[in-house]
């Protein structure tokens, strides 16, 4: 089923204040909390949906990204069902200590992430913002990016334990990773303070990684940018995010594309637009021009006699490539009026004015005619 807009989920308009967002979520959380609706899967799903919406809209950075790019804007930022712990940092005035609820419904709090089929937890996804030239976005390119990520420790191979040692079940939580307590009709679960929610403790931590199983390292990779990519789109690079704990699989790298404006060209979908200056005589008599395309080719363009300022000429298949086809290029003709004239030039124009005649009292041009042009 398609995800609903986060504002729609909370019953709010896009410009809602933080206080409105908080109040709307509190109402839904009380209504749909599974402890009040035991065995009701629909209520549980609505509770999850409302919490995901609140987790994004209560965070200024995530909300700005969501408002601009929708769900794609918060991918890789901890949005969605990856890190819901922040949703309760300011909510102790609602239910008291609310931490740990997502250990019950989403497989853990902020420390936990998705699990692979082997049971090992996957590492975090990472986000990289890449700015590329307009031309590279149109025709595609390859770019080397450098960033830092957590990699599996080469000494302990990601286990966190020194050679020959192991780990034991946490005596505080009995291996569950959670400490539960009751508060009214709620059953509150919070990460175990001894093992940090892992369910076990390492007897002799690896000296090189301090028992984390990962080390922070710089990474360089080549990213392929497909032709025709649009501003704000993302490229997903599998397995280039953080390493999972205890030898778990790597997360993904999300590369978000930002495109630098071009000096002469703009785009609309697959079409390119540019403006080209022509002289009065070229416009009046007609001519042939050689126009430079985005990829620096010269193409011949025929200018019809009597063309007016601001008219568009369409050049087929000179636009942006995508899916085996190309858009078009539109050239806006801008008639340049000379600011300085030679003596002979002035004489010729004065003669032209006498021959062709000029209206010293012109009528206004119909607005409908202007719109059609």
Could you explain the architecture of this structure?
The protein has 373 residues and is an alpha+beta fold. Among the domains are: 6-78, Orthogonal Bundle (Helix Hairpins); 119-156 and 214-261, HSP40/DNAj peptide-binding domain (Sandwich), CATH 2.60.260; 265-357, HSP40/DNAj peptide-binding domain, CATH 2.60.260.20. Helix content is 25%, strand content 26%. It contains 11 helices and 17 strands. It has helices at 6-10, 18-32, 41-57, 60-69, 71-74, 92-95, 101-105, 134-139, 280-285, 343-356, 367-372, and strands at 126-132, 141-152, 167-169, 178-183, 186-191, 200-202, 214-225, 234-237, 253-259, 266-268, 271-278, 287-292, 298-303, 312-315, 321-322, 325-326, 329-335. The strands form 7 sheets. It has a 4-stranded mixed beta sheet with strand order 10-11-17-14. A hairpin with a 2-residue loop joins strand 4 (178-183) and strand 5 (186-191). The two termini are 46 Å apart. Residues 79-113 have low confidence and may be disordered.
């Amino acid at each position: 089923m398609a995800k609903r807009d986060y504002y729609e989920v909370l019953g709010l308009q896009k410009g809602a204040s933080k206080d409105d967002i908080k109040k709307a979520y509190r109402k839904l959380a009380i209504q749909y909390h599974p402890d009040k609706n035991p065995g009701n899967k629909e209520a549980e799903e609505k509770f999850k949906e409302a919490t995901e919406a609140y987790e994004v809209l209560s965070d200024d950075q995530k909300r700005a990204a969501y408002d601009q790019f929708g769900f794609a804007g918060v991918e890789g930022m901890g949005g969605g069902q990856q890190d819901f712990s922040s949703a309760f940092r300011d909510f102790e005035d609602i239910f008291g200590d609310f931490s740990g609820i997502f250990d019950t419904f989403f497989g853990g709090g902020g420390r936990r992430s998705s699990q692979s089929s082997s049971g090992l937890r996957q590492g975090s996804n990472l986000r990289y913002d890449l700015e590329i030239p307009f031309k590279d976005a149109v025709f595609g390119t390859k770019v080397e990016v450098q960033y830092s990520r957590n990699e599996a420790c080469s000494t302990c191979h990601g286990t966190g334990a020194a050679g020959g040692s192991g780990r034991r079940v946490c005596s505080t939580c009995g291996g569950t990773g959670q400490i539960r307590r009751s508060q009214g009709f709620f059953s509150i679960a919070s990460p175990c303070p001894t093992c940090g929610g892992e369910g076990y403790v390492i007897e002799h931590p690896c000296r090189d990684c301090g028992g984390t199983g990962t080390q922070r390292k710089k990474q360089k990779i080549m990213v392929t940018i497909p032709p025709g990519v649009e501003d704000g789109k993302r490229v997903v690079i599998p397995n280039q995010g953080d390493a999972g704990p205890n030898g778990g699989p790597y997360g993904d790298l999300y590369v978000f594309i930002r495109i630098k404006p071009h000096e002469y060209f703009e785009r609309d979908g697959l079409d390119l637009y540019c403006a080209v200056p022509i002289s009065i005589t070229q416009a009046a008599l007609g001519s042939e021009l050689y126009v430079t395309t985005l990829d620096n080719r010269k193409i011949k363009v025929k200018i019809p006699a009597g063309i007016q300022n601001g008219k568009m000429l369409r050049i087929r298949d000179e636009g942006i490539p995508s899916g085996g086809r190309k858009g078009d290029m539109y050239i806006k003709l801008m008639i340049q009026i000379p600011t300085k004239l030679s003596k002979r030039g002035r004489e010729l124009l004065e003669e032209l004015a006498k021959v062709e005649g000029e209206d010293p009292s012109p009528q206004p041009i119909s607005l409908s005619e202007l719109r059609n042009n």
